[in-house]
């Protein structure tokens, strides 16, 4: 049987990490709801479609959504160490999205904040370092293709998510989920039987 490529493993583990981080926000944070005409919804449990509905009904703005996530990162990240840095332009991008919302034809990602792994290049005020201080302050020549498409769709680049330094190619002995910039990453896992449990280390690339 053919083995999976390193790129496939990096992509899969990046997705798993981001899903687990969003679950952490869902089950650890305090309740935060906005009223809709057909009831209420929790930002933590809302789908992208739910958020877009809230935007259209003027129950939520992209600025409010970004402020909410930035607050959750400030509150939870000292323990989880899942986010390496946040984008200083995130609120400005949110304000732009709120102004643009008067127009029609935007994609479902318009005004939605997203986190990118710190191996995905962004030509902005964010660093792209693979978790290493060796690349801190370097400037990429252009946005990665994925980032260019996200910007074109109107998504807000919220920040850079942590990873194993150099995507775990740094050393055979380096602990998984650790990077010099981000520290040792942690996640929480929720099950109905045991509730919220913190996992000291997480396998991530």
From TrEMBL:
Domain Amidase, chain residue ranges per copy: 64-171
Coiled coil residues, start to end: none
InterPro entries on file: Amidase_dom, AS_sf
Pfam families: Amidase
Residues that span the membrane, as ranges: none
Entry superkingdom: Eukaryota
Keyword Signal: yes
Key words, A-Z: Signal
SUPFAM superfamilies documented for this protein: Amidase signature (AS) enzymes (SSF75304)
Signal peptide: 1-31
Name this polypeptide is given: Amidase domain-containing protein
Organism, as annotated: Ficus carica (Common fig)
Organism lineage: Eukaryota, Viridiplantae, Streptophyta, Embryophyta, Tracheophyta
């Amino acid at each position: 049987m053919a083995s999976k490529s390193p790129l496939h493993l990096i992509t899969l583990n990046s997705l798993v990490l981001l899903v687990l981080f969003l679950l952490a926000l869902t089950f650890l944070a305090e309740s935060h709801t906005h009223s809709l005409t057909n009831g209420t919804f929790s930002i933590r449990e809302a789908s992208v479609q739910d958020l877009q509905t809230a935007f259209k009904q003027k129950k939520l703005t992209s600025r409010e959504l970004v402020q909410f996530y930035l607050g959750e990162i400030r509150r939870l990240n000292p323990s989880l160490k899942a986010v390496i840095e946040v984008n200083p332009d995130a609120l400005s991008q949110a304000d732009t999205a709120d102004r643009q919302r008067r127009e029609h034809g935007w994609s479902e990602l318009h005004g939605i904040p997203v986190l990118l792994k710190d191996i995905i290049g962004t030509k902005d005020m964010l660093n792209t370092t693979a978790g290493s201080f060796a690349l801190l302050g370097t400037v990429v020549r252009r946005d990665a293709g994925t980032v260019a498409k996200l910007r074109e769709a109107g998504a807000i680049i919220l920040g850079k998510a942590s990873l194993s330094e150099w995507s775990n190619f740094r050393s055979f002995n380096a602990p998984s989920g650790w990077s010099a910039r981000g520290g040792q990453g942690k996640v929480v896992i929720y099950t109905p039987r045991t509730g919220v449990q913190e996992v000291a280390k997480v396998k991530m690339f």
